[in-house]
Fold this sequence. Notes:
single chain; alpha+beta; ten-stranded mixed sheet; two-stranded parallel sheet; 12 helices; disordered N terminus; disordered C terminus; binds cytidine-5'-monophosphate
Amino acid sequence: MTDDARQSAPVDPTRRLAPVVRIAPAKxxxxxxxxxxxxxxxxxxxxxxxxxxxxxxxxxxLAGGDQDTxxxxxxxxxxxxxxxxxxxxxxxxxxxxxxWPGGSQPHxxxxxGSQxxGSQxxGSQxxGLxxxxxxxxxxxxxxxxxxGLGGGSSDAAAAIDGALEAWGADLxxxxxxxxxxxxxxxxxxxxxxGLALVEGRGEMVAPLDGLHGxxxxxxxxxxxxxxxxxVFAAFDAIRxxxxxxxxxxxxxxxxxxxxxxxxxxxVARAGAMTVANDLxxxxxxxxxxxxxxxRSLSRLLARPVGLSGSGPTLWALYASGAEAAEAATAVRxxxxxxxxxxxxxxxxxxGATHIQTGQQHGSQP
Length: 365
Ligand code: C5P
């Protein structure tokens, strides 16, 4: 959503006809330093996140019933009931309470002749205030699932933003951030997008505006399921805290990206970035076959290959999206010819994209 849109007067949602559309981009961790294990079992991080051009698409329409619904196409994200989009909408509705144009009139006309909503499943509202209407969401999943690319978290952030617009409601930035952090650790970042230094459990997000140009990114996601929880558990089994060199690289890169860095300079730092992920040894314990695959990819591409987040997505940086696309072709050919073999029961996702600077979540024309 643009700032202009966010500040405009709320639209009466019962008069809205067109669905609200949101782009939900993937992310890449250019660095990931695990600072410490927290008392709540989570880990505090120091990580440079980059938004990618690869994105899911969400559309949210006011629905007639009293249940939010989700219809997914593209990659299969698993059980719909567990989808973070539905959780994000439920938590956003609770935070909005009666603070939407129909909220203080529980018996006001409903969109599409629907019935007033009961306390289930929308939760009770104080003093008979009406909860925001149910939404029918369509999600086109183009980002591989459970891949370390943040797709589910990005969908959730887009759902928070899209639901507010569909309802003609608003939440101040602090309240939005609180809802996002309650949905998942990576969700707050996606309220900002662009490049950012992410700290704490993920709730501290500082935009980094110094990157010039649009570096290309090759993504290779083997068809293996990697649970973030399992990777952090493996990290705890082998380490008490992250590596000092990883931390230094992360701090240094964040400083450079806060000041000014060209695409060429970023690509030149790939060697340092691709080893600056404290979760690498832990992910290697969870998926041992990722280690030789990463090595063979690096040999094939003649450049360093990193792991995004807890994996299993592997990435390489290029001067442009076109160069990344050439690399993607080379990887597909090598896989077809059996020169490299990816872990997993099926072939990997191989995609070329680019780093996206600045704002995202914009409304589509
Ligand atoms: O917050 P989210 O549900 O995405 O996290 C999934 C799991 O990853 C958590 O249950 C936790 O075990 C681990 N995690 C962590 N530290 C973080 C983020 C995630 O330990 N900063």
